[in-house]
Specification:
Layout lengths: L2 H6 L9 E4 L4 E4 L64 E6 L2 E6 L6 H10 L1 E3 L15 E8 L19 E9 L6 E5 L5 E4 L2 E4 L5 E4 L2 E5 L11 H12 L5 E5 L1 H10 L3 E5 L3 E2 L6 E2 L2 E5 L1 H9 L9 H20 L1 H4 L2 H14 L1 E3 L5 H12 L6 E5 L2 E3 L9 E3 L4 H9 L12 H11 L11 E5 L6 H12 L5 E6 L8 E4 L4 H11 L6 E3 L3 E2 L5 E7 L22 E3 L8
Parallel strand pairs: 5-18, 6-13, 8-19, 22-23, 22-27, 24-25
Antiparallel strand pairs: 1-2, 3-4, 6-7, 7-8, 9-12, 10-11, 13-18, 14-17, 15-16, 19-28, 20-21, 24-27, 26-27
Length: about 575
């Protein structure tokens, strides 16, 4: 019997399986005694014990109520009529994102929920897409997750949706970029009717053998999935070919995801600028705010003929508004502090997911969740690939890239530039900056520095040197070639008597105090002491400051997850 079954058996409410751990101050999932349990500090016979098994006094407001069967009329702990903990629980680390017919959920609980997480891991379907996806998830780098919603007609009540006989095209596609410093994220929608070149794609068949699916020239983007046996890896390769941005992982779901997830979370608030009575999607809602779930939620994100110019681009805007609302709902205390609601959500979400091999591991899902949780909703931007009508068509049915705007947006995402204004320095870093940058700055013309490449793309040292000399007036600079080794982060080493020069160069480059390394000077080609600037793997390009302030976001229509917008 799984964790849910144990929670429902013997009249035990799933909410009672979450108890406060006095050692951490967090609520943790404690399963029933029928399953092996990892040790969790809690009450024992004769009262709690301290280190070494010695007894210690109870701390008021931090008790862990023993899990017990409730009698008739007896309220659950922490509910009305029962004794509520005096310390508010920290939000459960659950993050749900869903747009249109696609969704993804990642979840983590404390170590006491390990066995339940393994159960959830069993719900998730994985697909081996080979080298189209990374073999592991890195917590120390920016990452891109391709979120796919298919029009596959699986599940009860879905026969009337999508294309009859479809194996599941890429009906809704969002490329989610999460910044390296976790201060911001960009959710880029890719129109399904965008004309692209679909590259050849190596896929694995059900019997384990491999085959190469021939590519297509000038085809609709949605054909990169499903048709001809193309899997999500083919769509990932298509995205990279079209945008120059390589997806690291993918998450995929079908029509059922929207219905089950919105029901699990208790509905999603939406707003309409005018009443809608759509005969095709069967959506009927008044003007103003409404709450939708299940079939009605799916109808909302599938509706086209009632919004804008009745095309897919306007439907994308509605789906982005829906996703933003769902994210606000998920970050609200009503959801994050309700164990019962979270259990239902976790079950529904993981059952709806198909992911690449790396994300199918429970510990990886936990890591992804923790990283996503760091991004504030106000800095999550929604944008759509800039497009224009296909000039080759008389009847406008498809779109092509707008070459005057799309490359700038792709470059911004690839260079990890936020579409919103963000404060990127953390408290500890601010203290380091204040200590090392406080004081007089030397004129740029007096700054002597040798630039080395220690992990940046080839040619970065020369490009930076040219930018410093021509645009910043740092004329006493030179190219030192490649560093002896590679660095994860760009550093500036300087001698004590070069502090004023270091402060000026740090201001020009956007270096943090942590990147400034007091040490020794080097002798430059003129035989004069100089500082050493080593460009690391975090280098984003000449003129792009390391704190992100130098990278100007492109002019693009966007919205953010913290704003309420009404579909029109």
């Amino acid at each position: 019997m799984d964790a849910q079954g144990r929670g429902r058996g013997d009249d035990i409410d799933p909410a009672d399986q979450w108890v406060l751990n006095p050692a951490t101050g967090e609520y943790e999932l404690r399963l029933g005694p029928s399953a092996p349990q990892p040790p969790v500090p809690g009450p024992r016979a004769g009262g709690p014990r301290g280190p070494g098994g010695t007894r210690r006094a109870r701390t008021p407001g931090r008790e862990v109520p023993p899990q017990r069967r409730r009698g008739p009329g007896q309220p659950a702990p922490g509910r009305r009529g029962g004794r509520a903990p005096q310390k508010k629980p920290k939000a459960r680390k659950v993050l749900l994102w869903t747009g249109g017919t696609m969704a993804f959920v990642v979840l983590t609980t404390g170590t006491a929920g390990y066995f339940y997480l393994k159960h959830l891991e069993g719900n998730v379907t994985t697909t081996d897409v080979g080298d189209a996806a990374r073999s592991n998830f890195s917590k120390d780098e920016a990452f891109n997750i391709l979120v796919l919603g298919t029009d596959k007609r699986t599940g009860a009540g879905n026969k009337g949706y999508g294309d009859k006989g479809s194996l599941g095209h890429a009906d809704t596609t969002v490329l989610l970029h999460v910044s390296k410093d976790r201060t911001n994220a960009t959710a880029l929608s890719i129109p399904r009717d965008l004309i692209v070149d679909i590259p050849d794609c190596r896929t694995k068949l059900e019997d384990g053998t491999e085959t190469v699916v021939p590519g297509l020239q000038g085809a609709r983007f949605n054909r990169s999935l499903g048709e001809g046996g193309r899997d999500a890896g083919c769509t990932m390769r298509t995205v990279e070919a079209a945008t120059g941005i390589k997806p690291d992982h993918f998450m995929m779901a079908d029509f059922n995801a929207v219905k089950t997830l919105t029901t699990a979370v208790g509905g999603v608030d939406v707003c309409l600028a005018k009443p809608v009575d759509d005969k095709k999607s069967h959506l009927k809602l008044p003007a103003g705010e409404s709450t939708v779930e299940g079939e009605q939620a799916l109808a909302f994100v599938r509706t086209r003929s009632s919004f804008g110019n009745q095309g897919d681009l306007d439907r994308i805007k509605v789906q982005q508004q829906f996703l933003a609302s769902l994210m606000r709902k998920m970050s609200s205390g009503d959801t994050l502090t309700s164990p019962t609601k979270l259990l239902k959500l976790a079950e529904a979400a993981t059952e709806a997911l198909t992911v690449d091999k790396a994300l199918g591991d429970v510990n990886t899902l936990k890591d992804v969740a923790l990283e996503l949780k760091k991004v504030p909703t106000k800095n999550i931007s929604f944008a759509t690939v800039p497009v224009k009508d296909n000039p080759a068509e008389r009847v406008k049915a498809t779109v092509v890239l707008d070459e005057s705007r799309a490359p700038q947006l792709f470059d911004a995402i690839r260079d990890d530039v936020s579409l919103t204004d963000v404060k990127q320095k953390k408290k500890k870093e601010k203290a380091a900056v204040a200590a090392r940058l406080k004081g007089e700055k030397a004129p740029a013309s007096e700054v002597r520095v040798q630039v080395l490449n220690g992990g940046a793309p080839g040619g970065s040292a020369q490009a930076t040197l040219s930018w410093l000399q021509v645009e910043q007036g740092v004329t006493k600079s030179e190219n030192g070639g490649n560093a002896a080794g590679q660095l994860a982060r760009t550093t500036l080493e300087y001698a004590p008597d070069q502090a004023a020069q270091a402060r000026r160069l740090a201001a020009i480059l956007g270096l943090s105090g942590a990147a400034m390394k007091p040490g020794e000077s080097v002798t430059n080609a003129q035989g004069v002491p100089a500082m050493t600037l080593t460009l690391g793997k975090d280098f984003k390009g000449a003129g792009v400051k390391l704190d992100g302030s130098g990278g100007k976001p492109p002019e693009v229509d966007k919205s953010t997850a913290d704003k309420v917008e009404c579909a029109s």
